Amino acid sequence: MKHLRTTLGPKRKSELGMILPHEHVFVDLRTPDQPGYAEAEIEDVVRLMAPEIERIKRLGVTALVECSTGGVGRRADIDLAVSLATDFPIVVPTGNYREPWIPEWVRHASEQEMEAWMLRELTVQIGETGFQAGWIKLSAGDDGMTALETKILRAAARAAAQTDAVIGSHTIRGRVVMDQLDIIEAEGYRADRFISIHTQEEKDFAYNVAVAERGAWIEYDHVGRAGDDEVAELVIKALEVGCGDRLLLSHDRGWFDPALPMGGTPKPYTHLSTVLLPELKRRGVDDATLIGLTHDNPFEAFAR
């Protein structure tokens, strides 16, 4: 039986409902060499972000996927604190972002050392938090992978192949996604265990379809950040060409930012529930399809 690995332990599908597959509780987009990088008082983060979690709980959201990875301020201890304060499961990644958001230790680590690090986080625990990483989050340069990004991806593919973890990557160009899938398959893993994050940024819709047809997940994670008509039309277009069973929807919102006074002002995770889903229903998308997009697909993508 597959489970979602969360801050509150493994969760079966029967324990869950709607899942948001791409959000942030805490993120620092400064590079890791900057003073104060990823530093914050845990109670300040809980004070700012717990109310945002409580809002989506009241809307029927049952879990959230944290997409802050190594290099952009991942703080698994903070995710855990927010999770415990709200009794709400959060799925936290292992992995590392793209250049220049790469810590020095990652630059100097071998592929084998990177693989072992990710494997431990996926199978034992992240640091000393007591919970396992639920997935692997990476990124690639807009115009193609660097040698360092390729090293991280190869290590991730080998760690994932041993755990059935999904690999998600912030990748803007569809052709770069195809290159990533080639590498993953060359390392002995599968395209259907890959999420093309920010698929909407590839404006050639043929690439959206090609990635889904190859078996990977496509993710439209600009709900509430782009115009509602634009997002709804893109979702319906994907449904019409048969990509519904490989499609994920989310906001890419939040979050506590330690570079801003008191963490800044968070952007709610509510727009999908309160605006987009009703709009899709108004346009003729049936309830079963909406449940598939928001309940079934995220679980199938992240569970292992």
Explain what this protein looks like in three dimensions.
By secondary structure, the chain is α/β, with parallel strands linked by helices. It has one domain (4-302): Metal-dependent hydrolases (TIM Barrel), CATH 3.20.20.140. The chain has helices at residues 42-58, 76-86, 104-108, 111-123, 147-161, 174-186, 205-213, 228-240, 271-282, 287-302; strands at residues 4-6, 9-11, 18-23, 61-66, 90-91, 93-94, 135-139, 167-170, 194-197, 217-220, 247-249. Strands 6-7-8-9-10-11 form a six-stranded parallel sheet. A three-stranded parallel sheet has the order 3-4-5. β9, α7 and β10 (217-220) form a beta-alpha-beta unit. α1 crosses α2 (76-86), α5 crosses α6 and α8 packs across α9 (271-282). It is globular and about 50 Å long. The model has no long low-confidence stretch (mean pLDDT 98). This is Esterase. Zn(2+) 1 binds at residues 22, 24, 137, 252. Its cofactor is a divalent metal cation. The modification N6-carboxylysine is found at residue 137. Zn(2+) 2 binds at residues 137, 170, 198.
